[in-house]
Amino acid sequence: MPELPQYIKSQLLQRGADLAGVGSLAELPPDVRENLPFGICVAVKYPKAVIRGISDMPTQEYYDWYNRLNEKLDGLVVFGAELLSAQGYRAVAQTREHVGFGETEYNTPLPHKTVATRAGIGWIGKSALLVTEKYGSMVRISSILTDAPLDAAAPINASRCGDCLVCTNACPGGAVSGKVWAVGMRREEFFNPVACRAAARARAAQGFGGEATVCGRCIAVCPYTQRYLEGD
Ligand code: B12
Ligand code: SF4
Ligand code: SF4
To answer: Which residues lie across from 145 on neighbouring strands?
Structure first.
């Protein structure tokens, strides 16, 4: 069998993940990471046509894929955790059921985006979304916590947004302040989740008559997403 980090990553990619990486969680309080030292980030991307379709308004198709990708991610992290458990390690799949939806304070104990930056998968954009070099922000993510001895990637601690303000100007809820993220910054210092949620509710109703909280304009307009959409 190849080395464990390569093995687990290649298994996740073969199973349908589009990006996977390992990060050290040592700098985070033990209680939020269930006393486990490593986090594996798993990302899956939306089809290009779905994201092209929401540059103006959210669509039923976007909402269907949002649900479909959440199910796919739950399956992938359970699969990855089972592989590690079978090798004798502790592994916790951060499924939606396990983590919850952060509905009261818009907060979960260990957000997937934190694991993602620790695993070198991307940075937090001015949009408050995870932005990846390859797919921009058109990915949904999940994570696995484990004590398996995995080599951690170099974490990403700084933004690569530069002076771009595309998402700030495009957000219909005025939720994106335009301030640049750096590790350790609280979300509320640069992003307003209450304004985002209200705008997303209104836009889902307007766009496809849905009672959902989906908008995603910040995903579609980001130049990193656009670069991927324009490629082959
Ligand atoms: C609550 C929630 C919301 C809330 C609040 C959003 C927010 N940004 O916090 C509301 C309802 C507004 C919302 C809206 C949306 N959401 Co939402 N949401 C969540 C949820 C369930 C929890 C997020 C959470 O705990 N936030 C708490 C704050 C503190 O953390 P955070 O913003 O997630 O990230 C911070 C930390 O990661 C920190 N950080 C990063 N690295 C490090 C390193 C260290 C050492 C430390 C200490 C901190 C740190 O920096 C970030 C900014 O402060 C996650 C799923 C999950 N379990 O993670 C999805 C999630 C964040 N949502 C997602 C998406 C796509 C959306 C929407 C596009 C949905 C839509 N409307 O169509 C919008 C986009 C809003 C936006 N621009 O961010 C995706 C994001 C994917 C991506 N590429 O980033 C997630 C990850 C769901 C998923 N499974 O993919 N969401
Ligand atoms: S999902 Fe829509 S309302 Fe929320 S931050 Fe993105 S563009 Fe703004
Ligand atoms: S649109 Fe620009 S500022 Fe916003 S997340 Fe993307 S690169 Fe960063």
So the answer is: 39, 92
Supply the residue whose CA is at minimum distance from atom 74 of ligand 1.
Answer: 216
Q: For the chain, give every domain's residue range.
A: 4-230
pLDDT score, position 6: 83
Integer distance in angstroms from the first to the last C-alpha of the chain? 34
Q: Is the CB of 172 under 6 A from ligand 2?
A: yes
pLDDT in tens, 91-117: 999 999 999 876 667 888 999 999 999
* Residue 47 CB partners (closer than 8 Å, separation 6+): 65
pLDDT, tens digit (0-9, with 9 covering 90-100), for 169-205: 999 999 999 999 999 999 999 999 999 999 999 999 9
Q: Which two tokens stand for residue 221?
A: 């307009």
Give the closest residue to 4 by CA, choosing from 219, 150, 220.
Answer: 150
Return the pLDDT at 103: 66
- Amino acid identity at 27: E
CA distances from 93 to 39, 110, 137, 200 (A): 10, 12, 22, 28
Which ligand has the shortest distance to the CA of 132?
1
CA pair distance 107, 176, nearest whole angstrom: 17
What 3-state DSSP class applies to 24?
strand
From the CA of 60, how far away is ligand 3's center (Å)?
25
